[in-house]
Design a protein that fits this description.
The chain is an all-alpha fold. It contains 20 helices and no strands.
């Protein structure tokens, strides 16, 4: 080898991209002459040119786990609130931390609030599974964090254009204890089906048991999504919600056979509806209800809207507004219409008209729900109710009650009472609000006095009465969130010369 030339071949792969192909070939031939290698070595050397030295393309990484939802495309699809609970459990954190610190900052706008406070976030969890703005915002935020594109099917967002939000969802959590028990015994994932969150569903579709809404241990109504929610457990006391019941043990004392048949039909047709949400090519439009109902007017009532209204035992004006598309029927009313017409809700909302009712409506109306508005169902004793409401207002021996409890004790919907007795209802509500305000002020004064006593006692012991030190000895340190309690401590510190 000539002096001054030191060549080791094959050269490193990192060096080759900087050379042209002709230069690589020249170096290879020179190396063959100097080393006496065969052509085979030259062929091996030229294999470097076939290597792909570009960095591979990695798929985007999600901020949260790409957790698979349960039951999409079936009637047992889980709810969005239940998915949030499982997602938090997968990250070994509480749902409150996940929602407040991770999800809420990603574009969640709390109605009536300028920031994502705990009260603001958890004051709207009952709407997460519905058709409104809050459901859409949380779906969008969670999809951006998990990189999933199917979380909208865990809500009723597919039906936003055809189902109004009023009366659609429960205010609390409902559950079937037998489902929970069976899932735990068989090792299945414990979750919360979307059907359980709908107000019209009263029974479990699998066990035909009434859904429960309270914890059997602490008897507290369950929240749809709380700070410490965990599927299958009470968010208040942590008790297990699953247990076994004898078949129909509850329903035999609660629902008649006719009512059970109605609820069985409801869970079946609503189950078909939520199962089809992920398979629809076109989103149902608002005009579809008017078209479907108008088709049944022509099919059953010979084009007479008033005749169809009589057959459905519903107000003529309401049926006419539904046909024109000016007003959408509430979900429970829509179910009654479909029940009478002998069609499923899915067919009705997608424009599939059945001819089973060509000879007239023969199916009985659902029990206990024959009228969408109770004002059409019975005569209201105006004078009697007026005297009863006045008695509630003038009763100074009992604690004031909210208007909802007053209406419940009288057996009437609060909207009906407010429609006929607006002044009395307003006075009862204002009396209750004044009572609550007085109670709150009294508790604040007790807390302020306790702060003063603790602060003086700590100072006498040689300990500076800071907020953290005083809070350790308070019976209810959470009241330090109130401005009045903070001012009470500040005044004590001024008197002691600790503040200037």
């Amino acid at each position: 080898m000539p002096r001054g030339i030191s060549l080791v071949f094959p050269v490193s792969a990192s060096f080759l991209p900087s050379l042209e192909q002709s230069e690589i070939n020249t170096l290879a031939m020179l190396w063959m002459k100097l080393s006496g290698n065969s052509v085979m070595n030259y062929e091996v050397a030229t294999l470097y040119d076939q290597w792909d030295l570009k960095l591979p393309l990695f798929p985007p990484r999600s901020y949260l786990y790409h957790l698979q939802p349960i039951g999409i495309g079936t009637a047992n699809v889980e709810s969005l609130t239940g998915y949030i609970t499982r997602l938090a459990q997968a990250h070994c954190i509480e749902p409150g931390i996940l929602m407040e610190r991770v999800v809420a900052p990603v574009g969640i706008k709390i109605p009536g609030s300028t920031k994502s406070s705990r009260t603001g976030v958890f004051g709207h969890t009952a709407t997460f599974n519905g058709t409104g703005m809050m459901a859409a915002q949380w779906v969008q935020a969670l999809e951006s964090l998990t990189l999933r594109s199917d979380l909208r099917f865990l809500t009723m967002l597919t039906w936003t254009n055809v189902i109004p939000p009023r009366g659609l969802l429960r205010h609390g959590l409902a559950y079937c204890p037998i489902c929970y028990e069976q899932w735990r015994e068989t090792g299945q994932a414990i979750y919360e089906p979307l059907l359980w969150s709908l107000n019209v569903v009263k029974i479990c579709p699998h066990h035909h048991q009434l859904l429960l809404t309270e914890c059997p241990h602490c008897q507290v109504p369950l929240s749809p999504l709380a700070w410490r929610s965990r599927s299958g457990y009470c968010s208040r006391c942590g008790g297990w919600l699953g247990f076994c019941l004898q078949p129909f043990a509850l329903l035999s004392d609660t629902l008649t056979k006719t009512e059970l048949n109605w609820q069985t039909w409801v869970v079946k047709t609503v189950g078909e509806m939520v199962a089809a949400a992920s398979q629809l090519i076109l989103t149902p439009s608002r005009e579809m209800i008017g078209r479907s109902l108008s088709a049944y007017v022509n099919l059953v009532a010979f084009g007479n809207v008033a005749m169809l209204a009589r057959l459905l035992q519903m107000p003529k004006h309401a049926v006419w507004q539904w046909c024109t598309g000016k007003v959408l029927p509430q979900f429970d009313t829509l179910l009654q219409v479909c029940y009478c017409l002998g069609t499923s809700v899915l067919d009705f909302l997608t424009g599939v008209v059945t001819t089973a009712v060509v000879d007239g409506i023969t199916a009985p109306l659902p029990p206990k729900t024959r009228c969408a508005n109770t004002a059409f169902c019975r005569t209201i004793p105006i004078e009697k109710l007026r005297r009863q409401l006045e008695a509630f207002l003038e009763d100074n021996r009992s604690l004031p009650l909210p208007m909802t409890q007053v209406a419940k004790s009288l057996g009437y919907d609060v909207r009906i009472l407010r429609r006929h007795f607006a002044d009395l209802c307003h006075a009862i509500s204002q009396r209750y609000l004044d009572y609550r305000k007085a109670q709150h002020n009294q508790k604040l004064e007790i807390s302020c006095e306790e702060v003063r006593q603790v602060a003086f006692r700590l100072f006498s012991q040689g300990i500076e009465p800071t907020r953290s030190e005083v809070a350790r000895f308070l019976s209810k340190p959470a009241y330090f969130r109130e401005r009045e309690v903070c001012n009470a401590l500040l005044q004590v510190r001024y008197r002691l010369g600790l503040e200037m």
